[in-house]
Specification:
Helix content: 40-55%
Number of helices: 4
Strand content: 15-25%
Distance between the termini: 16 Å
Structural class: alpha+beta
Shape: elongated
């Protein structure tokens, strides 16, 4: 029951991240995922859902490089999508 709620909230964050992606279409925008983790947390006693991006350049978009500014898509999505959930 709690895991389902975590997945629902994570899915809201994923949808927000897809809408904030700095590209209209492509690998980055299509690579957001939600992964439920039944036994997460430090003591492995929490229901957790992870939101991420599996594209090869996902970290570069999120954190930037020395030549490209960071977009912080997942951070902003967690702030907005998490509040809406």
């Amino acid at each position: 029951m709690i895991l389902a709620e975590m997945v629902r909230r994570a899915d809201a964050i994923r949808v927000a991240a897809e809408s904030m992606a700095p590209v209209e279409r492509g690998t980055y925008k299509a690579s957001f995922f939600v992964r439920p983790v039944p036994r997460g947390g430090r003591r492995r006693d929490r229901a957790v859902a992870v939101v991420g991006n599996s594209s090869p350049h996902g970290a570069h978009v999120e954190y930037g490089t020395e030549r490209v500014q960071a977009h912080h898509v997942l951070l902003r999505a967690a702030q907005v999508g998490g509040a809406d959930a």
